[in-house]
Design goal:
The complex is a heterodimer of chains A (about 70) and B (about 170). Chain A is built from 2 helices and 2 strands, in the order H-E-E-H. Chain A has about 70 residues and is mainly alpha-helical. Chain B is mainly α and about 170 residues long. Classes of the chains: A mainly alpha (about 70), B mainly alpha (about 170).
């Protein structure tokens, strides 16, 4: 039982998938007297309910926040 | 030669049958059956400052994050915490988590994603290993024993050869 190189392969795969995901776009709702705020389009991609992908992207965002402003 | 070594670097055929089925932890039902539970287990361990000191030491020494993550999840599977397929699913998130903790501690790390190995660069871990070996080989200093002074052998003076020189016995 050995995981030789599986980590690198899985990480590259996740990176690729996370880069392919389009950012959510807010669309204004229609109607003359509409007071509703712009609403983000619901994500219907297969990764939308992927718990691990969400965690991965959240961690990437956190890391980017930490690195921001650091040389 | 290397291929021949890898060929024999494997369990003996039938080795898995030398113990009863269910005797090993990974043959029991996994403690965490879902990826969510398993990830929570690793997240608490990795982000806990009282536990992750040795982990950060390994990262600082230049061990690739991918290797550390592989060892972590493989160990979890061997302990029976989760199945091996869950450990493969967890790998990228665990790697990202370790990188995050290292970033937070302001430690430079190697993700281990680069395939090419620069032969000119010697990793910190190899240097530390060599230093350890050298320390073990070096003899301990002996302070208590007095310094031995080598006995000085009187040099046999050459016999004077001049006309007016005295013979040796008269001196």
């Amino acid at each position: 039982m050995s995981l030789q190189g599986q980590g690198v392969r899985a990480y590259n795969n996740y990176m690729k998938r996370s880069m392919e995901n389009k950012p959510k776009v807010e669309v204004p709702t229609s109607g003359l007297m509409n007071r509703n705020k712009p609403k983000a389009e619901t994500d219907s991609t297969p990764d939308s309910n992927d718990y691990l992908m969400t965690q991965f992207q959240d961690l990437q965002r956190l890391r980017a926040g930490l690195k921001n402003g650091r040389s | 030669m290397e291929e021949a070594n890898n060929l024999f670097d494997a369990p003996i055929a039938g080795q898995s049958l030398t113990s009863e089925i269910g005797a090993r932890p990974w043959q029991q039902p996994a403690k965490y059956s879902s990826v969510e539970d398993a990830l929570e287990h690793y997240a608490t361990k990795i982000t806990d400052p009282s536990i992750n000191d040795s982990l950060l030491d390994a990262v600082e020494m230049g061990t690739p994050v991918s290797s550390i993550a592989e060892i972590l999840v493989q160990g979890g599977a061997m302990e029976g915490l989760h199945t091996i397929d869950v450990s493969i699913l967890l790998l990228p998130v665990v790697m990202e988590l370790i990188a995050y903790v290292a970033d937070e501690a302001e430690i430079e790390y190697n993700m281990g994603l680069e395939s090419s190995i620069d032969q000119d660069i010697i990793s910190e871990s190899k240097i530390a290993l060599a230093m350890n070996k050298m320390k073990k080989k070096m003899p301990e200093p002996k302070d208590k024993e007095p310094m031995e002074t080598p006995e000085v052998q009187p040099e046999e003076s050459q016999q004077p050869t001049g006309l007016m020189a005295r013979p040796k016995g008269e001196m």
